[in-house]
From TrEMBL:
UniProt name for this protein: Polyprenyl synthetase family protein
GO terms (BP aspect): terpenoid biosynthetic process
Source domain of life: Bacteria
Similarity field: Belongs to the FPP/GGPP synthase family.
Keyword annotations: Isoprene biosynthesis, Magnesium, Metal-binding, Transferase
Cofactor annotation: Mg(2+)
Any one Pfam family match given in the protein's UniProt record, by short name: polyprenyl_synt
InterPro entries membership: Isoprenoid_synthase_dom_sf, Polyprenyl_synt, Polyprenyl_synt_CS, Prenyl_diphosphate_synthase
GO CC list: cytoplasm
Any one GO molecular function term: prenyltransferase activity
Length: 302
């Protein structure tokens, strides 16, 4: 069932959204002078919208190991910056050619294409600058590992590779298999969500078993999240989602909804959400919000 505004998860999400928004506003302040337009475009991309699910995963993962909120918020903000960069570039005419994102004009519509490209590039660079700063963690080895894992999640065997596979699938003559779609979605969406779930454990120098459990949780959650997104694209309105819907079928995109149909895709998403929650057994009640998030992910309407 959808979350009510007074449910524990809704209250926790609401608090996390406000904290992450404040962290982003602080780490990416408005500037004056020649670079002001670039900073404004970056802030347009990253502030004032979004579920902040990736950031919430960092905060809740870090809470399992007593990590300071300040450190966790810096990593959460960095991941949200990198995620925003990917959306700015995905929305460009050369990619998905979208004019609405999070209920407002996409960056290339609000500014121009060249500014949008630079804003995305700058958000990605700034994300790593925040992650690598000594304020994020006192141990340089922890900061280095965070940067390495984020680079892997975002690079050619992660988010960028998944976007390439998505574009190739649109151009292909044959429908891809379920396995091929699963790999595409793992790279494009799942790797960054998996890292967000793992990041708190890296910050907390957690034992390998617990770190692997959070990785597995994030992997299954990411797969469920992407199927839920595809279902929303097929069934929800632009007013609900804050972006244009129906575009997957229109563009001939490779999705499990298109391959399996809505009913079977929903069953698959439910199975993945249950598997994600099962990976948290060793954390006990401390991980209840993460379990609730898995259920919420497949029932949301935005």
């Amino acid at each position: 069932m959808p979350e009510t505004q007074t449910s524990p998860l809704a209250m926790a999400l609401g608090g996390a959204v406000a904290e992450i928004e404040h962290a982003l506003d602080t780490l990416l302040p408005a500037e004056e002078g020649p670079e002001a337009r670039l900073y404004a475009a970056m802030r347009h991309a990253v502030l004032g919208g979004g579920k902040r699910m990736r950031g919430f995963l960092v905060l809740e993962g870090a809470a399992q190991f007593g990590v300071s909120r300040t450190s966790a918020l810096r990593v959460a903000a960095a991941i949200e910056m990198l995620h925003a960069y990917s959306l700015v570039h995905d929305d460009l005419p050369a990619m998905d050619n979208d004019d609405l994102r999070r209920g407002k004009p996409t960056v290339h519509k609000a500014y121009d294409e060249a500014t949008a490209i630079l804003a995305g590039d700058a958000l990605q660079a700034h994300a790593f600058a925040v992650m690598a700063h000594e304020d994020t963690h006192s141990d340089p080895a922890v900061r280095a590992e965070l940067c390495l894992r984020l680079a892997q999640a975002a690079g050619p065997r992660g988010m960028c590779g998944g976007q390439m596979l998505d574009m190739l699938a649109e151009e292909g003559e044959e429908d891809p298999s379920e396995a091929a779609i699963g790999r595409l979605q793992l790279l494009k969406t799942g790797k960054l969500i998996e890292f967000a779930a793992e990041a708190g454990a890296i910050l907390g120098k957690a034992p390998g078993q617990q770190r692997h459990a959070l990785c597995a949780y994030g992997r299954e959650l990411g797969a469920a999240f992407q199927i839920a997104d595809d279902i929303l694209d097929a069934t929800a309105s632009a007013a609900e989602t804050g972006k244009r819907t129906g575009k997957d079928a229109e563009a001939g995109k490779a999705t499990l909804v298109g391959l399996l149909g809505l009913d079977r895709a929903k069953v698959q998403a439910e199975r993945l959400a249950e598997q994600a929650a099962a990976h948290l057994d060793s954390f006990g009640e401390r991980a209840d919000l993460l379990r609730m998030l898995a259920a919420y992910t497949i029932n949301r309407r935005s």
